[in-house]
Specification:
Elements (H helix, E strand, L loop, with lengths): L2 H23 L5 H20 L8 E6 L4 E8 L2 E9 L22 E5 L4 E2 L7 E3 L5 H5 L8 E3 L8 E2 L2 H16 L5 E6 L5 H6 L6 H16 L6 E5 L2 E5 L7
Parallel strand pairs: 1-9, 7-8
Antiparallel strand pairs: 1-2, 2-3, 4-9, 5-6, 6-7, 10-11
Helix pairs in contact: 2-4
């Protein structure tokens, strides 16, 4: 065998493979999550294949509070395709509008992202992941609170609660995307589908200006080939651009 090939193989065995293995072990796992993934993965793969999508490809999530819907989008070519809509059991006792402070019962609205360390495969609510509230914008508005999750068990005081079956599917898609190299996924939360008609219906709300800013991000996705925007915060507002807009 060529000496160069031997050196390359040795390098892979002793350097590349351990790094990859270490990266995989950084993704939280448990017997509960592994059993759930094994249970739902075959059907998910079939559903994805029917839509010409692949298990393990990057994901993006949108939540609409008024409609109580969670959407999972899967990366395809230059944008994302809608894979599936899941019913949200409840987001607690709060109303439309952002979370302001710890204990207010509100679920957040805004632009968040989830990294592997935010997965909880041993959650008290079956399986869960932390959306990352408060984000930079929330902190700029002096908003407080923590541990806002998407989780199972269908009960909530401010998190987004799903049925156990639905959180198993969502968790499996998240886990697979991370293990396939996605370093984070975006989760964008809106009070309602941000059409002109809905905005007109809520023109008298105290949150109308804030929702107008959220609508900019909603429209960006719709107008840019179903590509989630990169989201930054400037002068107390969300701003949107295509810089690193997909996923690293």
């Amino acid at each position: 065998m060529n000496r160069g090939i031997i050196i390359f193989l040795v390098f892979c065995v002793f350097f590349v493979m351990p790094v990859l293995a270490a990266a995989q072990t950084d993704i939280p796992s448990s017997s509960r999550s592994r059993e759930a993934i094994d249970r739902v993965k075959p059907d998910l793969e079939k559903e994805l294949e029917r839509k010409d999508l692949k298990y393990g490809d990057p994901i993006y999530i949108r939540i609409f509070k008024e409609e109580k819907e969670l959407e999972v989008w899967i990366k395809k070519e230059n944008g994302f395709d809608l894979f599936k809509k899941y019913d949200v059991c409840t987001y607690g006792s709060g109303t439309l509008g952002p979370k302001i402070e710890e204990g207010d019962g509100q679920a957040p609205e805004g632009f968040y992202y989830v990294t592997p360390d935010r997965l909880n495969p041993v959650s008290n609510f079956h399986l869960s992941f932390d959306i990352g509230y408060p984000n930079k914008y929330d902190r700029s508005q002096k908003r407080t609170g923590c541990d806002i999750m998407v989780h199972g068990s269908c009960v909530s005081i401010g998190c987004f609660a799903m049925t156990d079956k639905n959180i198993e599917e969502i968790f499996a898609l998240v886990d697979a995307a991370f293990r396939n190299g996605q370093s984070f996924f975006r989760i964008h939360i809106f009070p309602f589908r941000m059409t002109k008609e809905n905005m007109e219906n809520y023109k008298d709300s105290e949150w109308y200006s804030f929702w107008g800013n959220l609508k900019e991000g909603y429209d960006f996705f719709e107008k840019n080939g179903k590509t989630p925007p990169n989201v930054e915060v400037s002068e107390g507002r969300y701003v949107f651009n295509l810089n690193n807009a997909c996923f690293s």
